[in-house]
Amino acid sequence: MKKIIILNHGLQISGVSRALVNLANVLAAQGHDVTIKLEIPNFTLAAELDSRVKCGLFLKEWRLLGMRIPGFLRLYQLFLKMQYRIAPKVLHRMIVGKGYDVEIAFNRGAAARIIAATDTGAKKLVWVHSDFLRCQNPLAGFASLGEAHKAYAQFDHILCLSKQSELSFRQLLGDYDSITMSCNVLNAERIREKADSVRLEKENKTLCAVGRVC
């Protein structure tokens, strides 16, 4: 069993969040101790996590005698605005700490900046879900291209989801021996159940688009 922590932006309805839920559930089913910590307080897909997966915000909510302290979310929003002024090693101690065998940044931005700063000896992984030459703000969380380059160099594995994401990452940030291509984990059984739950009987052809419209 390995102790694994995964940082992500949130668990809002999105392809990245869905992939995270699938990955965490597979790891938990394999007997690993899995913790997810989120940057923003959006837990929409948390109900689909395996009950063994622990999930919370970057900072643990303060409680007094088990009771929620009013105003925590307001103070937490202030922390989010200030976090990029805090040294990543300090953030790592605040958010991750020690004791994990594997530390994963499941997205760019704060997650990548924090996990790159670990000095605990844990394996460090980062996921690249996007085409860095086309997506909005590929260097989110970093003050400069140079800072991002140094941070990504700290990862043991940089996992790109497609050949195009790998090529664009290399073009923007340079070549790393740690870059590999890896597909997202899919829950094939759930997909089949969803497909079998709907029956369309039409004479005309039906076109299906897969993805979000936003």
Description:
The protein is of the alpha/beta class. The protein has 7 helices and 9 strands. The strands form 2 sheets. The protein has a 7-stranded parallel beta sheet, sandwiched between helices. α6 (163-173) links the parallel β8 (157-160) and β9. It is globular. The termini are far apart.
Distance between the termini: 40 Å
Fraction of residues in helices? 25-40%
- β-strand amount: 15-25%
Structural class: alpha/beta
Mean pLDDT equals 91
How large, in whole angstroms, is the Cα Rg?
A: 19 Å
In DSSP terms, counting alpha (H) and pi (I) runs of 4 or more, how many helices?
A: 7
Q: Give the SSE order as H and E letters.
A: EHEEEEHHEHEHEHEH
Annotation, overall tally of beta strands: 9
Strand order within the widest sheet?
A: 3-2-1-6-7-8-9
Given as residue ranges, the uncertain stretches (5+ residues, pLDDT < 50) are: none
